[in-house]
Amino acid sequence: MDTEPVRLTEVLAVAPERWPKRVRHKTLRKKLRNKGIEVVYEDEHVVAFHQIEDDYDSPQHTWRTRVVVAPKRELHTLMDLGVADEALTTALLHGIQQVALKLNLHKEGFEVRADCMPPYQQVGYLRFKVRAGKRDRTPEEKVEHAQAERAAFEELRAEMDALYDEEPPAQTTP
Q: What CATH number is associated with residue 108?
């Protein structure tokens, strides 16, 4: 009997074999460094930073505070965390708590969101989003949001089309 844990991404056909280059885990550190994004919390296992744009903002609502908490180790989905990752799981929860305390979110309330697998997961790395200060959008913001959503969708669709239109490597027979 096989006692080795099975990774969900190895089993499910809906998981892309490769994520588009722009959403790979390595872009996380580069994005923080190049764009001067403020780090809210960091330890040896996780980093938490302010998110400029929320890819899951509702067309009707937006959030005053948006922070991403992500592991420094490359993990693709929540399903890749196992019982052997106890230290990382604890560090992720501790990171979320530290963000809430540092930004005083524990006084007003907040939500934590994690997306798992396409179509819900839009990036190729595990992340938790801490959001607070929900407010309704103005009519102008709703139009602007819809236009940005369309543009982002078209860009992602073009990347995915290019990714899956590539010729598979030729297999050689011995």
A: 3.30.428.10
